[in-house]
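INFO  loader      accepted 1 record
INFO  loader      residues=293
INFO  predictor   begin
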Amino acid sequence: MAIFATYAIIFILFEDYDRNFLQPFEEASDWHLLLFTIIVMSGLALLLHRYAHQMDERISREQAAKENRVRRELTQNIAHELKTPVASILGYTETLLANPDITPEQQQQFVRRTHDQAQRLTALLQDVSTLNRMDYAPEQLTMQPENVSRLVAEIVSETTHTVQAHNMTLKNCLPEDIILPGNYSLLYSIFRNLIDNAVNYAGTGTTIEISAEEQPTHWHFTFSDTGGGIAPQHLPRIFERFYRIDKGRSRALGGTGLGLAIVKNAVLLHDGTITAHSAPEGGLQFHFTLKKR
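INFO  predictor   done
INFO  writer      dumping tokens
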């Protein structure tokens, strides 16, 4: 910019201020100055082009390195998460095979534990598959008008027994007939994972509430519970894959560590945003938007 300004000033000093209309340059110095300016600006343009190209390459390398690092971490985390249910299944089945004379009650107990671990393994693989579809093949996701109010009502009905078993209250305050363009499976994952997360971690006797407010271009949803909330240092990371606040408790409850990561990615794929906050009166609040069209 300094060089350009310098040559602009030089050109102005050589200009004829009394010229009221365009006419050919009469002095050779005018032509020389114009040619010199064109050469200098062409050189600057070439340098800027090379610099922009180098910056693009640098950004691409950094992005590729970041993606590779994320993939390695994800692979390591998946392998780590798979070890526990697989080891448990092997342990229970080996016990059954090595002790054919155990009582039917003991056999049933081991079979039930094996089944529970198999379900956990299935849930983990399903969550990984869902994330892979969102990461690598989002264009293959079918988008069509969906009745979100009806979808949430179905989830509330499905989770009634679990909610009551935890002595919790689930308030569905959504208006009727919220119609949004989206993928049914991913919309289902958003609300189901938020409800499951609240049921598992908010604590017994708490209240879960789902509400929404219509905006000009989107619907703003609020999902809140009256549980113990989350410490501030954990809030920025709760949407990370396999991030757990209490690893032992999460695994004991059968969580895969991917639920909130799926929620965030599903919201983003619907052109929305999501944030998590600790409520002033206690508990946790999720605020997210879904585009209307």
